[in-house]
Amino acid sequence: xxPRNMSMSGVVDLAAVKAAGEARQKAxxxxxEHAAHGDGSAVAATQLVIDVTEENFERxxxxxxxxxxxxxxxxxxWCEPCKQLGPVLERLTESYAGRVLLARIDVDxxxxxxxxxxxxxxxxxxxxxxxxxxxxxxxxxxEDQVREVFDQLIAVAEQRFGVTGLVTGGEGAEQAxxxxxxxxxxxxxxxxxxxxxxxxxxxxxYKNVLSDNPADTEAKLALAQAELLLRVRDxxxxxxxxxxxxxxxxxxxxxxxxxxxxxGGHVEDAFxxxxxxxRRTAGDDREKARLRLLELFEVVxxxxxxxVSARSALARxxx
Length: 319
Prior knowledge:
Elements: H1 16-37, E1 49-51, H2 57-63, E2 70-75, H3 80-95, E3 101-106, H4 111-116, E4 124-129, E5 132-138, H5 143-161, H6 173-176, H7 185-196, H8 199-212, H9 217-232, H10 237-246, H11 251-263, H12 267-280, H13 283-300, H14 305-318
Parallel strand pairs: 1-3, 2-3
Antiparallel strand pairs: 2-4, 4-5
Helix pairs in contact: 7-8, 8-9, 9-11, 9-13, 10-11, 11-12, 11-13, 12-13, 12-14
Domain Thioredoxin: 43-155
Protein name: Tetratricopeptide repeat protein
Keywords: Disulfide bond, Electron transport, Redox-active center, Transport
């Protein structure tokens, strides 16, 4: 079973802009349905922790992730650190009252999922938002650190994907039930253009949104992604990679290769390539490489740990 619409190693999904709008609409519909049915349709705390298998993975994780961030706990009965971490994850999940779900996956019984996520050791904790997977941490951790990770995950889910959680009958239900803001028609036009493959039209639509509201974070992300897709659309990947390998001092070649790296999910390679280019160059070439690196930070997201690490590396090179 191969999960659909999912990046298994932190790959950047360049359809995430469209997914964010769809996820926001689905979440808003779900909130309205819950509100219409009253307390009887609220999610019980016991339903916030789910045992997931290869058979129900798509339904319980991928589909639910359109409404709520799903935290995945890879564990095994023989793993002592798993037994320490598991109760912490369950307790925190219930305390967030529908802002996150917890999917428990027994690695012994679900080896295919274990391999697909590239898990190196257990306990290992991942998250899925809007169908997209991202690693969180590995090994047992104290509750205050796990809570911080949950807080960051919830913020990323809402800001980048429009995923705000489920309505529950427990503490925090009022916050989870807050109505989502309607999507900006200009932003929706950009999403539609992106879906049709009209990259130039999408770029222009997102620029129109930002001209009226320069602080719109979703439009910034969407524009960065659409511009990246437009840049790589007509590239010959093999020729670009050969040019970059043959001419490490060619800034333009390294920049094009970095774009392809990000689209292919090799985010660390892209960042490392451009940091090295900044280190080796000066003047206009250095500034060109630096600016492209900052643009790719926007594509991946400022909260992503790979961006945080690359920003530190860039700072060391520049200063």
